[in-house]
Specification:
The chain is an all-alpha fold. It is built from 13 helices and no strands. Helix 3 packs parallel to helix 5, helix 4 packs antiparallel against helix 5 and helix 7 runs parallel beside helix 9.
Amino acid sequence: QRSAKGVQVKAAHTYGSLIRAYGFLNDLDGVWVMWHEMKSRRITPTCITLGCMVEAITNNGDPEAGLALIHEMLAHQETCSLVNAVIYCSVLKGFSHRKRFDQVWAVHEEMRSKSLQYSIVTYNALIDACVRSGEMNRVSLLLEQMSDDRIEPNVITYSTVLKGYCQDNRIDKAFEVLEDMKKSADFSPDEVTYNTLLDGCARYGMLERGLALLQDMEASHVRPSNFTLSVL
């Protein structure tokens, strides 16, 4: 039953939970019913409620509607403060998964113009979008912006960049990323990192480099997986 009218729902966070549940069930009509019902009861959403709504819409294939809702919230003084980088990030991921890089970058520039506070999750989503769409030339700029924001890359950042270089047939750059990871005091290359680079070596016929990499993997005490063996 797509209504909360049978029960007394008085809090925005409860509507957020209901919206998220309908989104998880891929019931976009139910998502919108909850949102409009909340508004009809004059319950002001919180940033969490708005985040649940944008995420539910976007995850069900409509990032354009998610972005339109963000713009609607920004247009009203009582709700403009609810919008943050986390909420925008759902839309970034939605456009990225559809390989709409033009929209990804436009949203990124919109976020920068509003001086929103990025996190490592935001940057990782943008870098992943670059990799998915073959826009590796943009990665250096994002890494510079991360540095300016005093955000340190993590293992996901490095692994995503490495994957992009492998896909772009820039194996030397991928090996440079691996060396940077090995110098980090906070984390080390993991199985996924090594497998990605091994796959790149195999794809471009770099047998000797691939075997040397496997030895490096074993020396670093990273256990090979079934995928590692399939690449070999």
